[in-house]
Write a structure and sequence with these properties.
This protein is 34% helix and 30% strand. It is of the alpha+beta class. The chain has a 5-stranded antiparallel beta sheet. The two termini are 14 Å apart. The relative contact order is 0.25.
């Protein structure tokens, strides 16, 4: 996984991994979730990819939109 840049300094996200049709997200509490096109929708996954690569806004987006996740990884 790639370390999340956390440009605002207060994110709940620590790392992410972009996959072909999914984004894996790790949080400060140690949990990690897999969000897929099938579970969250392709548009939401595209926005999550954009925010992850930008290094800001991903945690807020997940909290506000609450995209469905495919599975909890840990």
């Amino acid at each position: 996984m790639k370390r999340y840049d956390n440009l605002n300094g207060d994110s709940g996200v620590t790392a992410y991994e972009i996959r072909h049709d999914a984004v894996e997200v790790a949080f400060v509490n140690g949990s990690a979730y897999l969000y897929t096109d099938a579970s969250a929708g392709a548009d939401r996954i595209a926005e999550m990819r954009r925010l992850a690569e930008a290094g800001q806004g991903l945690s807020a987006y997940i909290s506000q939109v609450q995209p469905g996740y495919e599975m909890r990884l840990r």
